[in-house]
């Protein structure tokens, strides 16, 4: 699978370990590690040797990685850097630094399944050259003699699964790319995520009755489709609108000489949760509610806020496209300072941004200027 993110973004939570391949950082999500442990445990009870079973699992993980590197390679041809590849239980996800255009997205998405088809094809050819036909029932009867057959079949299943025309599968991206020639990006995404949700619901129902593992996969597909739907709606409501149109221009600031008590009073008397900390007209930090509470508990109410504030904070220029800062504002309580040439112009918080989106969705146009 491939996923687009616009920069800047927060690092992926839940990712453990990191290696670099072709310049792309590759991380394992902790749920993927759990899946590997689970697979090893159930594999120990089957009638294959542990070494053979381990090889099979490694071959599948490598196949998924090559699939993702395929996406990364074609993205790089379009000048889109891959920020990272994260391995999840339902496959890898390649995060791209910017959204691909529909024509680019079609080829980027197609390459992943093509890599798996190529791996399967290569194994077919090698087996054929040794006068062996592929045993299509190898997966049902795993043994030490049919490892190559199982790796080939595993890759065929990976290709087929990813080609399903439903978000967040690669086929869903290809469907959206084709539809966006006829419809708006928003409508194209809506149809592709709708088919993703329908697929997830039918897989989930089938899984509950016959195959619990499938219900687990369906759950991830549903989440992926719902996330993409919401992200696309957010993008369509914010594209072409500068940050300055949505920022808060009336807000309170604190100075480096303020105490935790001053900050607490301001927190109670206003609806603001994040306070820029000023030294003259320079911003030297940001005091959020969590840092304030920590300061209150650890340092006491009479301590200076300079000891508790965050010195590293997100800042965005006022003319940046609002759709590009959405990933930064995606979690509750997120706050970014709107700054130009070191001067503070306003605040952007996830709360005021969601109010802005709400007003936009009922048709309010942002004010000019
Ligand atoms: Zn893919």
Share of helical residues = 40-55%
The first-to-last residue Cα distance is 40 Å
**Structural class label:** alpha/beta
Q: Please summarize the sheet with the most strands.
A: 5 strands, mixed
The counted number of beta strands is: 11
Share of residues in strands: 15-25%
Which spans have pLDDT < 50 for at least 5 consecutive residues?
Answer: 5-11
Cα Rg: 25 Å
Task: Explain what this protein looks like in three dimensions.
The chain has 369 residues and is of the alpha/beta class. Helices cover 50% and strands 16% of the residues. It contains eleven helices and eleven strands. Strand 7 (275-279) and strand 8 form a beta hairpin. The two termini are 40 Å apart. The relative contact order is 0.09. The chain binds zinc ion. Zinc ion binds at residues 1-2, 67, 71, 112, 162, 170. Zinc ion binds next to helix 2.
Helix and strand topology:
Elements: E1 2-4, E2 15-21, E3 24-29, H1 30-44, H2 50-77, E4 82-88, E5 91-96, H3 102-129, H4 147-162, H5 170-179, H6 185-210, H7 212-238, E6 254-255, H8 260-269, E7 275-279, E8 282-287, H9 289-298, E9 314-316, H10 322-325, E10 335-340, E11 343-349, H11 350-361
Parallel strand pairs: 1-5, 3-4, 6-7, 9-10
Antiparallel strand pairs: 2-3, 4-5, 7-8, 10-11
Helix pairs in contact: 1-2, 2-3, 2-4, 3-4, 3-5, 5-6, 6-7, 8-9
The chain binds zinc ion.
The site of zinc ion (ZN) has 7 residues, from helix 2.
């Amino acid at each position: 699978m491939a996923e687009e993110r616009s920069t800047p973004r927060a690092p992926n939570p839940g990712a453990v370990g990191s290696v670099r391949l072709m310049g792309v950082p590759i991380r394992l999500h902790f749920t993927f590690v759990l899946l590997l442990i689970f697979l090893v445990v159930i594999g120990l009870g089957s009638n294959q040797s542990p070494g053979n079973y381990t090889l099979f699992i490694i071959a599948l993980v490598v196949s998924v990685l090559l699939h993702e590197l395929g996406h990364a390679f074609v993205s790089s041809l379009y000048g889109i850097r891959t920020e990272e590849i994260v391995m999840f239980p339902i496959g890898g996800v390649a995060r791209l630094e910017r959204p691909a255009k529909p024509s680019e997205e079609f080829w980027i998405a197609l390459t992943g399944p093509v890599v798996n088809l190529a791996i399967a094809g290569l194994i077919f050819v090698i087996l054929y050259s040794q006068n062996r036909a592929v045993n299509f029932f190898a997966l049902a009867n795993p043994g030490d003699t049919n490892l190559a057959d199982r790796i080939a079949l595993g890759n065929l299943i990976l290709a087929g699964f990813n080609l399903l025309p439903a978000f967040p599968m690669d086929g869903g991206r290809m469907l959206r790319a084709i539809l966006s020639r006829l419809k708006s990006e928003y409508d194209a995404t809506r149809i592709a995520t709708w088919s993703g949700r329908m697929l997830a619901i039918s897989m989930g129902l089938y899984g509950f009755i016959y195959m619990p593992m499938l219900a687990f996969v369906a759950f991830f597909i549903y989440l992926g489709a719902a996330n993409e739907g919401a992200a696309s709606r957010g993008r369509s409501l914010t594209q072409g609108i500068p940050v300055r149109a949505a920022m808060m221009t009336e807000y309170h600031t604190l100075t480096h000489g303020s105490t935790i008590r001053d900050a607490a009073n301001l927190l109670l008397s206003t609806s603001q949760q994040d306070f820029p900390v000023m030294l003259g007209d320079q911003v030297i930090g940001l005091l959020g509610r969590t840092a304030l509470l920590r300061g209150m508990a650890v340092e006491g109410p009479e301590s200076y806020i300079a000891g508790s504030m965050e010195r590293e904070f997100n800042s965005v220029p006022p003319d940046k496209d609002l759709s590009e800062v959405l990933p930064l504002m995606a979690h509750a309580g997120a706050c970014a300072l709107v700054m130009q040439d070191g001067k503070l112009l306003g605040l952007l918080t996830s709360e005021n941004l969601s109010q802005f989106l709400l007003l936009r969705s009922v048709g309010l146009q942002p004010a000019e200027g």
